[in-house]
Amino acid sequence: MRRSDDLGRYRVRRIKLVSIGLITVLFFIALLAVLEQGPPNTYLYIGASPLNTGRLGTSDLFLYTKTLYPRTQLVLDWSRVFVDRCSNIVIVIISPETPYTDNDLSNIENVLSKCSTKNFLVADESTISNAVLARIGSDLRITGEILVETVDQYTNTSFLNNSSTRPILITRDTQNRVYYVYPTIDALYPIARFDLGNRSVELRLDIASRIITLNSSNLRKSEIIGYVNEVFIANKTDLGENKYIASTSSSEISGHYIAYIATLYTQTITQSTSSVATPTLMISRDNILISQSNVSIAIYEDLGNSKVMLFSDGSIFLNQVLRSNYNSSVLEIYRYALNKLCGSSIDCIVLFDASKYNTIDPYN
Question: How far apart, in Å, are the Cα atoms of 11 and each of 16, 18, 22?
C-alpha cells in the first residue's frame, strides 16, 4: 500500500515537472520570436481618427461622447464588432481618409441588423462618406467642392468691389478693367448658421464642402440644420498657395456676385546681361465663380428606421477646435445632433468609427 502511494506521488510530481518544463520551453520560444521579429507594431494614428490625440484628431470628441452616452465604443474593424440586441444605435463618422469597401458596408449592415433604429452622424468635407449614404438609401450627398467666402473675415466687408478689404493687389487687364485680388487661403472660412431647435449658433467653418439632395421631390422628412448665407463654390483645383480670387467693378450677374480665379506664375525675363524672375498674375475669365445663397452644410434626414445627421465639414469637430474659443459652440451643435439621433436615451449605443484613417509606423 505504501509503495503504491509513493508511486502515485511520483507520477504527480513528474507530471508537474513536465508541465513546468513545457511552459518554460514555450516561454523561451515566444521570447526568441519577439527578439527575432521585434516588438509588436505600434502605430501612430493621423488624420481625424479618434485615436489621434494631436490637434487634427478627434480624441476629445470621442471622450465627450462617452460622457453623454456611456455605451460608446471605438471600431477599428467592422468585421469584429459585437452588438447585442438594442433599440437604438448611432454610427459616428468624421472625415474618413480611406474608402469604404463593399465588405465594410456589408459588415456595417450586419451590425445594424441587430438594432431596431439605425442612425448615422456623418461629418465629412470629402466624398468618401457618400458610399455609406448610398448604401443606406439616403438622398443626401457631399459634393467635395469647397466653399469660398465672399466676405473678408478680418474687416467683415465684401471681398467684391472693395479696395478696403486688404487686397494684395489691384491690377488691370488688357481692357483696362480693375481687379481686386485676394489669396484664396484667406477666404476658406465662411461663417455658417446652425438652427438648433429654439436656438441659433454661428460658427466659422474650415475648408468646408456643401450638401446636395439627389431627389428634391422625395417626401422623406428632411430639415436643414446649418447653412451659409452667401458663398462661392469652387473646385479643389482652384485653390492653393498660388491661386487668388480676382473681382472686378462689374461683379454681379442676375443678383449673384461673380469673381475669377487667378494664378500667379513666375516668369523669367532674359535681359542683355541677366535673367530676372518676374511674378505674373494670369486672370482666367473662363474660370468664373458665381455666388450662391443659403448653401446647406448640415441636414437632418429621416428615412424611417434610419436617421441621418450630415455635416459637410468634419474639421469643426477636430481637437484643435474643441481646444479653442469655439469649444462651447461646437459641442452644442454636436450634442444637439447626437441627442436628436439617440433620442436622449442613455442606453443608446454609439459606434465611433476609427477604421478609415492612415497610420504611421514609427519604427519604419
Answer: 9, 10, 16
Strand partners, 14: none
Amino acid at 58: T
Label residues 310-346 b or e (16+ Cβ within 10 Å = b).
bbbbbbbbbbebbeeebeebbbebbebbbebbbeeee
Among residues 47, 334, 329, 332, the alpha carbon closest in space to that of 191 is found at 329
Q: Is the sign of the CA dihedral 331, 336, 339, 340 positive or negative?
A: negative
Give CA separation, 270 vs 84, 276, 318, in Å. Answer: 74, 6, 49
pTM above 0.70, yes or no: yes
CA distances in angstroms from 28 to 14, 20, 38, 125, listed in the order given: 21, 13, 15, 51
Contacts of 142 (CB under 8 A, 6+ apart): 124, 125, 126, 127, 129, 130, 209, 210, 211, 310, 312
Q: Is 235 helix (H, G, I), strand (E, B) or coil?
A: coil
Q: Please say if the pLDDT value at position 37 is more than 50.
A: no
pLDDT tens digits for range 149-174? 876 554 555 555 444 455 666 666 66
pLDDT, tens digit, for every residue of 59-93? Answer: 999 999 999 999 999 999 999 998 888 889 999 99
For residue range 118-142, list pLDDT tens digits in order.
999 999 999 999 999 999 999 999 9
Q: Are the C-beta atoms of residues 212 and 156 closer than 8 Å to each other?
A: no
Rg (CA), the chain: 29
